[in-house]
Amino acid sequence: MNSFKMATKVYSGKQAISCLKDFHCKRALIISDPFMVTSGMVDNVTEILNEASVPYEIFSEIVPDPTIEVVTKGVACTAQFQPDLMIALGGGSALDTAKVVRQIYQQVEIDNAVQLVCIPTTSGTGSEVTSFAVISDPSVNGKYALVDEDMIPNVAILDPIFTLTVPSNITADTGIDVLTHTLEAYVSTDATDFTDACAEKAMRIIWQNLAHIVENGEDEVAREKVHNASCLAGMAFSEASLGICHSLAHALGGRFHIPHGRANAILLPHVISFNAGLETSCDTKALIKYAEAANLLGLQAMTPRTTVNLLIAGIQKMTHKMSIPKFVTGLGIDEAEFKAAIPTMVEAALKDKCTLTNPRPVKAADLAEIYARMCRGVY
Question: Tens digits of per-residue pLDDT, 18-33?
Answer without folding.
Answer: 999 998 899 999 999 9
